[in-house]
Design a protein that fits this description.
globular; 2 domains
């Protein structure tokens, strides 16, 4: 067999193994999605959005308190993490590319990216919950924000590094200060990538359970007070899925479907919006 034929066969074997691995991954993904959607849609009803979580042994019930609680916790966590992450990413890409402080910041960001979420939850529990004397929605938002910040930082920095140097030089040539170049030129040029990073961070924290177990805990009743324990979908799903009550298990499937649909809808919506802007 000639060298050319050996290369052809190696290429065919490599492609075949890659296709096999991709097929196995797609089969597993479709299996998971089929199970989630079939059982999740069966649990969807108006009561799911209008009633609170039921007591043990009772019939019916819904996830209104958990849905509202998750929305509040997620909103405030993204409100904290988005500006901090974007500004830190701008500093690393535009101001501190070679400084020691920037290198240390990148090192700490990488550590936070790889840190287990339960460690973040324990840290916020010791720092915030213990000192304030109780679980709260604020503690849950802080824990999720600490998980989201490094994702936004790294995505923003990587996107800004893709901006051509000539674009910065053109802005400097007309007399624009560095802060205007960073905010109005380079950041605007990669805004779709930065928004994608924010969405990745949102998707990363939407289903986190361990940090909320140590911070927000749970609340069977409807509450919008962020200073008290607050119901949330991840913890409710965790508790209800392990319960012996059939209606609790059904509610857990419904909650899992809501989280999946939320992440899917946000990603698709933003991609459509930015695609239309590019066309115009």
């Amino acid at each position: 067999m000639t060298l050319y034929n050996r290369r052809i066969w190696r290429n065919r074997i490599g492609i075949s193994l890659s296709m096999l691995a991709m097929s196995l991954g797609l089969i597993a993904l479709m299996w998971i999605l089929w199970t989630l959607f079939s059982k999740g849609f069966a649990a969807l009803s108006l009561d799911l959005f209008t009633q609170d979580t039921p007591a043990p042994g009772s019939d019916g019930g819904g996830l209104r308190n958990a849905i509202v609680g998750s929305g509040l916790i997620l909103f405030f966590s993204m409100l904290i993490s988005t500006p901090i992450g974007i500004l830190a990413g701008i500093y690393l890409a535009e101001y501190g590319r070679v400084s020691k402080f920037a290198s240390f910041t990148r090192f700490m960001t990488d550590i936070m990216l790889s840190a287990p979420s339960i460690v973040i939850g324990l840290f916020v529990y010791a720092l915030f919950v213990v000192t304030t004397g109780g679980f709260s929605g604020w503690a849950g938002s802080l824990a999720l924000a600490l998980i989201a910040i490094p994702v936004v930082v790294r995505t923003t920095e990587n996107m800004l590094k893709l901006v051509p140097t000539s674009l910065r030089e053109a802005a400097f040539a007309v007399g624009a200060p560095r802060w205007q170049v960073s905010l109005k030129v380079t950041l605007r040029a990669v805004k779709s990538g930065v928004v994608t990073g924010v969405l990745l961070a949102m998707a990363r924290i939407t289903g986190e359970t361990a940090p909320l177990l140590f911070t927000a805990l749970n609340n069977q009743f409807f509450s919008t007070n962020m200073a008290e324990p607050m119901g949330n979908l991840p913890v409710v799903i965790f508790q209800f899925a392990l319960s012996p009550y059939e209606n609790w298990v059904n509610l857990a499937w419904g909650g899992a479907l809501l989280i999946a649909l939320l992440v899917l809808a946000v990603n698709i919506g933003v991609r459509v919006v930015f695609r239309n802007k590019v066309k115009h």
